[in-house]
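Re: the pair you flagged

First of the two:
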Amino acid sequence: MTEIEVCEKCRRLTGFGRVVEPENCLYCSGILWKLDELAERIHSDLIDYEYSTFLIGCRVEGSLKAIEEYFIELGMDEKNVLKNEIKRELGRIFSERYGKRVDFEKPDVTIIFNPERDELSYQIRPLYIYGRYRKRVRNISQTRWICGRCRGKGCEECNFTGKKYYLSVEEIIANPVVSLAKAKNGILHGSGREDVDARMLGNGRPFVLEVVEPKVRSIDLEQAERMINSSRIVSVSDLKFTDEEMIRHLKMGAFRKRYRAKVRFGRKIEEHELVAALNNLKNRTIHQRTPERVSHRRADLVRNRRVHDLKLLHVKDDVAVIEIESDAGLYIKELVSGDNGRTRPSLSEILGIEARVEKLDVLDVYDLESQNKLSE
């Protein structure tokens, strides 16, 4: 054991070995004596980023990992491995020198040091911003929709934009925020999605914007709201900072939605027969196979969703306006048309005539877990 050459600091870690100069240390190669310099490198790398919390990580590989395993076999306490010492000491030095706080749960920046390669890498925690959006016009997708023909490269079919739709709710909301945060990208996570040709009105759809690699974290959300709303196409409200748990809630939580649909029938429809058909559908469980129109991009499943209420707002000749309240995830167009028998029961099936939605608006999205709308 006395032939193993380690520096004074590693001698304290391992509990054995002959003390040599740091640069000749078999274990750390002098790294433990250069943590002040390493802290300066990190500070310099992150000079353009706003952050208050951090966490040090250490990746051990290659020959260093083999040496470490050898030392453990000789009796070194596993708690004293080099990576733990680097994390402890480097974290202490960096915190004291630059006034940043260690956060083991959700640090603004995670700093990864690889002593084998003397490399630093960084994971910048995204900003998460909750809000509600209203889409005032039709034929705008919720998220960026890449052209299926060119896969985003640009072609004649997409007018060389690389996108199927020129604008998206995601871009209108994300672009101003990405600019304010000096971020890499913005990703919209919505509580469900409306069809491209449907509007989102009422109190708006809950969403979380994930702001990727922000350099500025303390952005002015009121300013962001004004910038977004200036588009007059999409408006947002209730913006506030949140965390990734809210995304899981939006995707997995229990929601109910209210719609307004303009429906055209295959013949003139009488008010009394339409009211009777709507009453027949109330409080019914709908068995809905993935609609034909989305089957190319959705799993072919049978979903069971409940219709809670239907109200006739207007009827004249072969056209009616109907308000529908249902579980989230029910395809309203197919509830009306039946989708060639893939949705049962349907309004078309009950009436025995063709029925199709010409226009659709989403009016409200409710959070059933709290029995309140998320903005309240």
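Second of the two:
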Amino acid sequence: MKKSLISLFSMLIMSFSVHATEARIEAYKAPFHVGETVMACGKVAQVSQGKKSQYLNLDKSYPNQTLTILIWNRNLKPFEERFGKLDNLEDQKICVRGKITEYKNKLQIQVSNPQYLRLMK
């Protein structure tokens, strides 16, 4: 019993430390965190629609954005239920949680759950 309590306590400590080390960064610092899961924040400069996805470009419009938030159209409905049309997010400060990846020399975070996107006031 004592061993199982110690084991449980150790696992809880480790899980808290994992979340505590997650970085909160400004979007322009994304190049220093490729491959990491972060909370990235920036101003939505542009919202654009592709054939299969929506793009929220942070800080500057394409092709000079510091970070792109990618939302696939198949996941769009819950985002629109929570935020309305994504075009309404232009000029708003937002934070997104996810893993920074590189695609065609541009940095992005794919997000499929609106709980990982926060509108900042």
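Helices lie at 2-20, 76-83.

-B.
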